[in-house]
From TrEMBL:
This is histidine kinase. PANTHER family: HYBRID SIGNAL TRANSDUCTION HISTIDINE KINASE C (PTHR43547:SF2), TWO-COMPONENT HISTIDINE KINASE (PTHR43547). It comes from the Bacteria. The chain crosses the membrane at residues 333-355. Gene3D superfamilies: 1.10.287.130, 3.40.50.2300, Histidine kinase-like ATPase, C-terminal domain (3.30.565.10), Homeodomain-like (1.10.10.60). Residues 810-909 form the HTH araC/xylS-type domain. The keyword Zinc-finger does not apply. Residues 399-616 form the Histidine kinase domain. Residues 663-778 form the Response regulatory domain. The modification 4-aspartylphosphate is found at D711. It comes from Hymenobacter lucidus.
Length: 914
């Protein structure tokens, strides 16, 4: 019993304590939110290292004080020093001294003038300045005046950001740096000195401030001077929280902010690698990105999610501490029991049971520790991916989709016309046109599906599988590649093990997978090479394998480890794609419960194998109404297909003379799209064109067209501004406007409609739909011209003398009065109700009344308006909508034009008279 007791006491001894590290952090200042975020990041990361003793000293922007504090750290014999220098030159000697003593030194954010340091963690201020310059040049469309608000004079971030900004602006000759202001990194300094500078430079279009605090001060000055709607403000830092740059961008205070990570977490990670003798990188440059209205919500959600996960970790740590406290208290009980056992051997069994309980607690603590470490690793991986991928993804998606939509309009439009209006086309030409249309539609859908990998990340990509023939499905996809392969002398072989293999699969997903694999094989296979696609069952595994083998150059050993990474294009000098295809194919294959693997020999080719289960889970299957066919998902690379460029717009046939007197004004700066619209509209309408917004406004005011088709992205005045000016001018406010644009985001469409546009069409558009939309708008939204009759009712001299005509007028009046509230009431509607055509109705009314149908309807409405205005319970707006007017302003204009008094004046006169 005594021997067992001795062994028990020995096993209950506490474990060896973990090594204790002492880290000193010399901070130049804690006077701003960015520095506080840096310290918060350090503390958050330090929560994973309880064995670390961490001390921070604030120098309050005093280089002399900072040198003194670093010497105090050296006297305290710290194990590692982190320095964020106030000024580079004064701090460099003391940092070199610490390094020469053998103390690891990490330079954080602001560099010193020496290379004698262990590691550097921080952003690339030169890259920040370059990113800001490129964004400013793009935002101002290559023309404008910029005012730069710099940080403290001589500070390395201010110098580097200015240098990068100037370098980037050199690519935009039309963007001039009008003035500079040293804001000393503080908002009050900007508020004090900026107003006078803006008065001396009223031509400034944009202000670039070196941090978000100075940017906020610049915005407040602009708002005070009434310039906040004209001058855009851009800052740097991109912090989260209610007072951070991300919130300023979301609130519309700043046009954009550039992410400049504080680097606190990364500094602690590098420090722990150094202290634990692990491999580390000397230069740890944090990436930057532009945060504007296109991605601010995404960034805000990511930061909020990270904050929530950090809170979960803290709760787990609190639980772990509680368990440790429990463990410690139970250890105390065990020691008490062990002491009691020395006097009473009969309690030995109780001690043994307590020992078993102690072991169970240790196992629970171990499992909880592993779970916390796993969650921390997941957070680290997510943060790294977000930093690297977010900027590249969003910038790529925006530019790529915008650039593709305009040329696709000029491809799909003529092809649709030829296929629909050319029944006499030879079969070969019709087949080729169908191939062009199918691949153009695939390219269009590629633009819309570039966000698929984001959906995969957040689990928003659904799988809707149906039973189908996989062999026929793959054969259908290969048909698209047959002709480009034949043109290059490439043998395209299809070797299915069986004539048909029925499995459950989602055609929309697998279409993208196989298209990417075949497209890659076609790109990298040399002329007169060979591509082999084989399909076979694997009964033992209940799977089906689809392999795509090529005889290309193969994949180098250096590229094999990265071949499935997003946007990775390999180390070869010739990059033939965006670097997304294989990564998207892998994600979609896994989403489909399958696997994507590859083998490759340099110089001999590569083989990609897609392994799919024969049966999917019930939750992923749906009963299909027909066979599964490939969806239009990806277009073949232009280089692989060898397509020819479109003919010039001048070669379009202008078509026959217009059959309508309606005048349509087209405002479009792209010559090809302009010519295409003229070609489609001229057979039906009179057409005038303008190449920019200024000329378009002038022509609209002079010619008063019946309808305007306008592009959004125009040189000088934008399409949205054109619509706003058209609607504000009484001469053109009645003209329906159709906006054409490549900007397809819902918020952009809402913005276009809010400016007053009657229709918002995204490129590429269907020509037939555009034509019918124009016709409908002309029928439903045509406003009354200034030459219409202004009398209240039909002239008594024109009353029909015959009873037949009297009945016609009675019927016509009854139909109009029954539909007074319908703002879309048209001549065609009345003609259908009377059983006659539109032309017959016009002729009949003209012959009987000597006026137009629309004028007659207007007269009845305005006559009714005089009666309703006498009712004080109805507002003027209610009267307008009740009588079918599209808006109260239009009703007031029409009423005053007819009676020379506004509705409110009319009501006031009769109320006074009453």
């Amino acid at each position: 019993m005594l021997l067992a007791l001795a062994l028990l006491l020995h096993s209950c001894q506490p474990a060896e304590p973990a090594p204790t590290y002492r880290i000193g952090f010399s901070q130049c200042t804690m006077g701003d939110a960015w520095r506080q975020a840096m310290l918060a990041g350090m503390k958050k990361e330090l929560s994973f290292y309880p064995e670390v003793s961490f001390r921070m000293k604030d120098a309050h922007d005093d280089s002399r004080l900072q040198r003194q504090q670093i010497r105090e750290f050296l006297r305290e014999k710290i194990d590692l020093l982190i320095v964020s220098a106030n000024e580079a030159e004064p701090i460099t000697p003391i940092v070199e001294e610490a390094f020469n003593r053998g103390i690891p030194v990490i330079i954080l954010d602001r560099r010193t003038t020496s290379k004698l340091y262990t590691a550097y963690v921080g952003g690339n201020n030169l890259e920040v300045g370059q990113a800001a310059g490129n964004y400013v040049g793009s935002l101002l469309r290559g023309r404008g005046q910029v005012l730069e608000v710099l940080g403290a004079p001589g500070a390395s971030p201010a110098v580097d950001r200015h240098q990068g900004f100037v370098q980037a602006l050199a690519a935009y000759p039309g963007v001039q740096l009008a003035a500079q202001l040293h804001g000393d990194w503080k908002r009050p300094s900007v508020i004090q000195h900026l107003p006078a500078l803006l008065r001396r430079h009223p031509e400034v279009d944009l202000i670039f401030a070196h941090n978000d605090r100075m940017a906020l001060g610049a915005y407040q000055v602009c708002k005070q001077l009434g310039l906040d709607h004209r001058i855009r403000v851009i800052g740097v830092d991109g912090l989260s929280g209610p007072h951070g740059g991300i919130q300023f961008v979301e609130d519309g205070i700043l046009s954009a902010t550039l992410l400049y990570p504080p680097g606190g977490e990364e500094a602690i990670r590098v420090a722990m690698k150094i202290l634990r003798k692990e491999a580390y990188a000397k230069e740890n440059t944090l990436s930057t990105m532009v945060i504007d209205s296109t991605n601010v919500l995404t960034m805000k959600l990511q930061t909020e999610k990270l904050a929530g996960q950090q809170q979960d970790i803290q709760r787990q740590q609190q639980l772990l501490q509680q368990q440790r406290d429990t463990y410690a208290s139970q250890q105390t009980v065990l020691y008490v029991l062990a002491a009691a056992l020395l006097g009473a051997a009969g309690l030995g069994l109780l001690v043994w049971r307590a020992f078993r309980a102690n072991r169970r607690i240790n196992r629970q603590l171990g499992e909880q520790n592993r779970e916390i470490l796993s969650q921390r690793n997941q957070i680290q991986e997510f943060a790294e991916r977000a930093k690297v991928e977010t900027e590249a993804k969003l910038r790529f998606f925006t530019n790529f989709s915008h650039e593709l939509r305009t040329p696709l309009t000029l491809i799909l439009g003529p092809v649709e016309e030829m296929l629909s209006s050319g029944p006499s086309l030879p079969p070969a030409q019709r087949h080729d046109l169908g191939l062009i249309r199918r691949n153009a539609q695939r390219l269009l859908q590629l633009v819309n599906q570039l966000m698929d990998f984001r959906k995969i990340d957040v689990g928003k990509m659904p799988v809707r599988a149906a039973e189908g023939n996989l062999v026929a499905f793959v054969r259908e996809i290969m048909d698209v590649f047959e002709r480009p392969a034949r043109q290059r002398g490439i043998s395209l072989r299809f070797l299915p093990a069986e004539p048909g293999i029925l499995i459950w699969f989602d055609g929309n997903i697998l279409d993208k997978v196989f298209f990417n694999l075949l497209s890659n094989a076609l790109k990298f296979t040399p002329d007169r090479g060979q591509i082999t696609v084989s399909i076979q069952r694997v009964p033992a595994e209940h799977t089906v394998r689809v392999s795509v083998e090529d005889t290309g150059a193969g994949i180098s050993e250096a590229d094999k480890a990265h071949i499935f990474e997003w946007f990775y294009q390999g180390q070869q000098s010739v990059a033939k794609g965006s670097g997304m295809g294989l990564a998207l194919a892998l994600g979609l294959t896994r989403l489909h419960q399958g696997q994507l693997t590859f083998t490759s020999q340099p110089g001999q080719g590569s083989t990609f194998v897609v392994t799919l289960p024969e049966v999917l889970p019930q939750a992923l299957t749906t009963q299909a109404a027909g066979p599964v066919l490939p969806s239009a998902a990806f277009a073949i690379d232009e280089d692989a297909v060898g397509t020819q460029p479109l003919a010039a717009a001048d070669s379009f046939d202008t078509g026959p003379v217009a059959s309508s007197e309606a005048l349509v004004l087209v405002i479009e700066d792209n010559p090809d799209v302009n010519a295409f619209l003229v070609q489609k509209l001229r057979p039906h309408f009179q057409v005038s064109t303008a190449a920019d917004g200024e000329n378009g406004l002038r022509m609209a005011a002079e010619a008063i067209p019946d309808l305007i088709i306008c592009d959004v992205m125009l040189p000088g005045i934008s399409g949205l501004a054109v619509v706003a000016q058209l609607k504000e001018d009484w001469r053109t406010s009645h003209i329906p406007v159709v906006l054409l644009t490549a900007r397809s985001a819902p918020e952009q469409q809402v913005e276009g409609v809010q400016t007053g546009a009657d229709l918002y069409l995204t490129k590429p558009f269907n020509p037939a739909f555009l034509l019918e939309s124009v016709r409908t708008l002309l029928a439903n939204r045509a406003r009354q011209r200034e030459h219409f009759r202004r009398q209240l009712s039909v002239d008594t001299a024109t009353v029909a003398p015959q009873r037949v005509d009297q009945k016609f007028l009675a019927d016509l009046t009854a139909i109009v009065e029954a539909n007074l509230s319908r703002s879309e009431l048209s001549v065609e509607d009345i003609g259908r109700s009377l059983g006659i055509s539109r032309v017959q109705l016009y002729r009949k009314v003209k012959a009987v009344l000597g006026t137009g149908v629309t004028d007659f309807i207007q007269g009845i409405r305005l006559t009714k308006a005089r009666q309703l205005l006498l009712d004080d319970e109805l507002t003027i707006a209610e009267v307008a909508y009740q009588l079918g007017f599209s808006s109260p302003s239009y009703f007031s204009t029409s009423f005053k034009a007819r009676y020379q008094v506004s509705p409110s004046e009319f009501r006031a006169l009769h109320t006074t008279a009453g």
